[in-house]
From TrEMBL:
Protein name: POT family proton-dependent oligopeptide transporter
UniProt-listed Pfam families: PTR2 (PF00854)
InterPro entries, sorted: Dipep/tripep_permease, MFS_dom, MFS_trans_sf, MFS_Transporters, POT_fam, PTR2_symporter_CS
Listed SUPFAM superfamilies: MFS general substrate transporter
GO molecular function list: peptide transmembrane transporter activity
Membrane-spanning parts: 39-56, 68-90, 99-120, 126-149, 161-181, 187-208, 229-251, 257-277, 289-306, 334-354, 366-386, 392-412, 433-454, 460-479
Domain named Major facilitator superfamily (MFS) profile: residues: 30-492
GO CC terms in record: plasma membrane
Keywords, sorted A to Z: Cell membrane, Membrane, Transmembrane, Transmembrane helix, Transport
UniProt family annotation: Belongs to the major facilitator superfamily. Proton-dependent oligopeptide transporter (POT/PTR) (TC 2.A.17) family.
Gene3D superfamilies: MFS general substrate transporter like domains
One Gene Ontology term from the biological process aspect of the record: oligopeptide transport
């Protein structure tokens, strides 16, 4: 039998290849590069916010907390917003697999910039490179995983859950090791370790690239050569406009999250409009895109709460959480590793559950609705310790709340990646995945914007309002399951 490493025949054997925990062997290659990319991404992000608002005496930049959370939210939103660029380049110029590889290179240079360049210049250059590179890698890694399965392969959701396991192995170890270096040697050593991690991932993927399916290198909708100059001109003009808006003070550090929200919302509406209006898609494909809209809305609400792990929860961990362990104070960043622990434990459970249930498993709209409800419950659980003093919230309380976060995440995130590949029109494969990431971008930017309203002395309104909204949003989707499934035309 032809092996999975012989890419021309991968598509012919993928349905029968089960060498990677019951999944195609090529999944192991994407699993690895995504694991190391997440190591660097979450390792850096685990110390980013405190680097921004810690004083110079503590090794930080001394930026106002509200501004710092806005910057982190805007950066997180920009990461997912950049999936548009990465998806467009894949679908029109290079193909998903090549964009994945080049994006990993850009990410590594971004972490190097954070490690070696001091102050605001290092943050600016580093975060821009990481955001652009991560956007390219995210959408295209997902697209490559989707290429490993036929539409009828019931292992797809289980495969995406295993892929998600790789993400969270990196997400678990990254904050632990960067946090240790940050507390013992300084922030820039932590950022440097993130760069090393991405370098390891790049080497590993370079060795395994030939194992990717040939379809992952196909450019599904090539851009005609006579239009390339025009697109370059548009790109340069857009960059010039952004620079001008920064110089005249329209875009500032204190309104970055609002700017990203507006840009992302406009991009999402435009993207849906372009795909739906395209003459290159069939009526069934168009209906499926309409069916994706309610899932998109619920996803935005979910990520608006979930992504506060990197804003509100970081501040909460720094000031409200009792991080003492046998007389030793745990680094703030280590809290970011709690969620990945549960993902590592539970992703296999969920993968096995979906595999065992097969066609009897809940439909995607049901999973999304339950995810939003569970996420809302997680925020309501904060009320049990609301308005406490400094370092009064027990560590086990956060562990329990993050367990609920994880259950919600596994009901939505890997399922969202999977359904975006199933609902995607043939001519917009990677760009449909980018639409799912736009929901994450919008939710992440909203998470940064919401953080400015968080008041540790009066937490009840904050956690109550956001929790109730999420529960209501999930309930509305559960009541709309039948019409949504009708739009999805056979995709569950």
């Amino acid at each position: 039998m032809t092996t999975a490493d012989q890419s021309p025949d991968v598509e012919d054997t993928a349905d029968h290849d089960a060498r990677f925990f019951g999944q195609p062997w090529a999944l192991a290659h994407v699993f690895g590069v995504e694991m190391w990319e997440r190591f660097s991404f979450y390792g850096m992000q685990g110390i980013l916010l405190i680097y921004l608002y810690y004083s110079a005496a503590q090794g930080g930049l001394g930026i106002d907390e509200a501004v710092a959370t806005g910057i982190v939210g805007a950066y997180g939103g920009a990461v997912y917003l950049s999936t548009i660029l990465g998806a467009w380049i894949a679908d029109r110029l290079l193909g998903s697999e090549r964009v994945l590889f080049y994006s990993a290179v850009v990410i590594m240079f971004g972490h190097i910039a954070l490690a070696v360049l001091p102050g605001i210049p290092g943050v600016t250059v580093g975060l821009i490179l990481i955001a652009v590179g991560s956007g390219g890698l995210k959408a295209n890694a997902t697209s490559v995983v989707g290429a490993l399965y036929s539409e009828e392969d019931t292992r797809r959701d289980a495969g995406f859950s295993l892929f998600y396991l790789g993400i969270n192995l990196g997400a678990f170890f990254g904050p632990i090791f960067t946090g240790l270096l940050q507390t013992t040697m300084g922030f820039h050593w932590g950022f440097g370790l993130a760069a090393v991690g991405m370098g390891v991932g790049l080497i590993q993927y370079s060795i395994g690239r030939k194992g990717m399916p040939a379809s992952a290198r196909i450019v599904p909708n090539p851009l005609p050569k006579n239009k390339r100059v025009r697109m370059i001109t548009i790109g340069v003009a857009g960059l010039a406009v952004i620079i001008a808006l920064i110089l005249i003070g329209v875009i500032r550090a204190d309104n970055l999250s609002t700017v990203v929200i507006i840009v992302t919302l406009a991009a999402a509406i435009a993207y849906f409009a372009v795909i739906i209006a395209s003459r290159q898609i069939t009526s069934i494909e168009r209906s499926r895109v309409f069916g994706f809209i309610p899932l998109f809305i619920v996803s935005v609400g979910f990520w608006s709460l979930y992504q506060q792990q990197f804003t509100v929860l970081t501040i909460y961990s720094d000031k409200r959480l009792d991080r003492s362990l046998f007389g030793w104070e745990m680094p703030v960043s280590w809290v970011q590793s709690i969620n990945p622990i549960f993902i590592i434990i539970l992703s296999g459970v969920f993968a096995a559950l979906w595999t065992k249930l097969g066609k009897r498993q809940p439909s995607t709209p049901v999973k999304f609705g339950l995810a939003s409800i569970v996420m809302g419950i997680a925020f309501l659980l904060f009320l049990l310790w609301a308005n406490g003093g400094d370092n009064t919230t027990p560590l086990l309380a956060i562990v329990g709340i993050l367990f609920v976060f994880t259950v919600a995440e596994l009901l939505l995130s890997p399922i969202g990646l999977s359904v975006s590949t199933k609902l995607a029109p043939h001519m917009f494969k990677t760009q449909m995945v980018a639409l799912f990431f736009l929901s994450v971008a919008l939710g992440t930017a909203v998470a940064g914007w919401c953080a400015q309203f968080y008041d540790p002395t009066n937490e009840v309104p904050y956690f109550t309002v956001l929790g109730v909204i999420a529960v209501a949003l999930g309930g509305a989707l559960l009541l709309s399951v039948k019409p949504v499934l009708a739009l999805m035309k056979g995709v569950r």
